[in-house]
Amino acid sequence: MKVIEKSDKPYLFEDYPLPVGFRFPESYLFLLEKRPPDIEPWEWLASYKELSISWMNIIKKQFPYRTVIPFAKRDDSDDVSCFDGTDTSGNPKIIFIHTFCSPGSENRGEANNFDDWLEVTKEESRQFKLGSVEN
């Protein structure tokens, strides 16, 4: 079994072609500079270059009509949170992609932007952890 190394520096696809004009949200970049919060059952992909590239390639292969940049993966499902790569505003919406399903049924919803996603995800994480304690 191959061990995937956690990076000290966040991986932002520096050596991977991103859509022309795409910019990561400032709040996302700021969060990565400090210690990102624990959002279990979600995992920050920027901590793992190999996983970031792998999920980018999986989504591109499964849904070639999608232009997204994955940044978080839910550990207990095949759901991946992605930035909308077609948005050049610097505050892109978030698209929830369910991988390993039939094309056309992958969309699991959206968030207006990273800040909205983070707020919902923190609450989801809190609820998840409370449920884990009860079990």
Structure, explained:
- The chain is 32% helix and 19% strand.
- It is α+β, with helices and mostly antiparallel strands.
- The protein has one domain: SMI1/KNR4-like (3-Layer(aba) Sandwich), CATH 3.40.1580.
- The protein has a five-stranded antiparallel sheet with strand order 1-2-3-4-5, with helices on both faces.
- Strand 2 and strand 3 form a beta hairpin.
- The radius of gyration is 15 Å and the shape is globular.
- The termini are far apart.
Q: What key attributes describe this structure?
A:
32% helix, five-stranded antiparallel β-sheet, SMI1/KNR4-like, alpha+beta, single chain, 135 residues, globular, 5 strands
Summary of the model, kept short:
The chain is of the alpha+beta class and 135 residues long.
Largest sheet: 5 strands, antiparallel
Q: Count structural domains.
A: 1
CATH topology, anyone? SMI1/KNR4-like
Could you give the distance between the termini?
Answer: 29 Å
Total helix count? 3
